[in-house]
Amino acid sequence: MTDNAQQYQFRRQSGPYENFVISLTQHYPVLRHLSGFLQQSTDSSLSRMTVLNFLRTGSVSQNPISRPEDLQVLMPSHSAPDIVGHVLLVEDLTSTSIEILGHNFGIDPLFFAYHLREPRIGLGGGCRITSGLPRMLPSDAKRVEYFMIEYEQSLVFGSSHIAFPKPLKCQSNVLRKVGLIRMTEPHEFVGHARRCFSVLKVKRENQRWLFIILLDPPVGNKFFLDYEDSCTTPIPHYYPGTSHLRGGYTHIPEILTCSSQVDTGPKCISLMDDMVYFWTSQQLPFHFNISDPDIFSISYFGLRMVASEWWCFLSLTQGAVETFETSLEYERPEENDHRRIENNLANLQKMKRRFNTFRENLDATLGIFKSHLYRDADHEFVSAMEEDFREISARLSISQQRVEGVLPVVTALVQILDGRRSYQETTNLTRLTYLALIFVPLNFCSSLFSMGGKIAPGGSEFWVYFVVALPLLVLTFGVVMVRPRMRVMAGLM
Asked: What value does the CA radius of gyration of the chain take, rounded to a whole number of Å?
């Protein structure tokens, strides 16, 4: 075995890279959640890997990876004269895959840390790490050979007789947030799941080029409750009818005419399967330099699918905002609607906070385009993709402004109902006050004549009680009713 081959010898057992990351956490605390992920057990059955081999002829072949030894095809020692480069697709990271890739290719730990992004809840009862990872500065983004893009995937949770719980996490090794946008029908929920698309160019001199793309798996029917302040084991929650909204993102071919031969097309469910479909069955993009591609050329199909997912998500948010706006046109606030309107207000406030997060993710994506445009100024494709994401960001801003416009109206409705409730409570209190005033003079007179004798009940002079009590009752009510009017008249004078 040559020195090169020994250098890239795969290790099944976790160790060197994990120890390297742990040693870095002392000086770089942002790597703590990556260190915690490496030390926890992960489910390898949820993860998939495949290699795309790019041939000199311009064609692309697929090589699925079922064992770590299958990755030897990426090594310089592997004899493949017709292959000029590889793309390794990894769906759902595991601690073992991070150890293998990080150790054998010398990958910057921040690449994995940015892909994990959110702290992971340990399924073995371990406490979740709460430290977050700040976004990369623009100056740093210009230096590194990787990037990470977050996007939202629209979902329909289907029918369920169980109330939708607090924020959920997808079932995967890298747990992503799942949020509820709106409820269309009773027990039918529409929401979104956070997804991540990360690309890395591995530096290798005088060797076949290599890119690593990290992807999230499709959203299934099993979720976990998101416990923010608990170290308990997450409880699984099942939604059997979960599916992508409208069957997934919309795929529009480059050219579609009546004479075109329409194939089966991508399934629009798994980003990994769709990328394999595009690279192996479609022609290479016109800007693709097969001898030495850049990071955006490799990400071409992936970025288009991410943009399509954002576009599908925009239709979801616009529909949610229109639902609120339409309901306000016919809103007649009644006392029994107080709880429903308060729920609408809470949902709008949540949507407003989420819109801020969505805008941050889109701004970060546009920053990535800008940083790489600085290095590849003649890249027309990057400019076109940047234009798409700017359009998505602009439309999302419009939806956000519409939410901010609806919020004051719903808040006013809540205030109206609160005022009505306060007026009703005041009216009830006034009635109780009048009722008490009736018994005050009567009770006084009863005490006054309680000495007995002729004025006792049944006595010859019992009528005196009514002669005294009734005028006192009239006088009491007269004072109560006249004094407020006298104050008003005094104020006018």
From this structure: 35
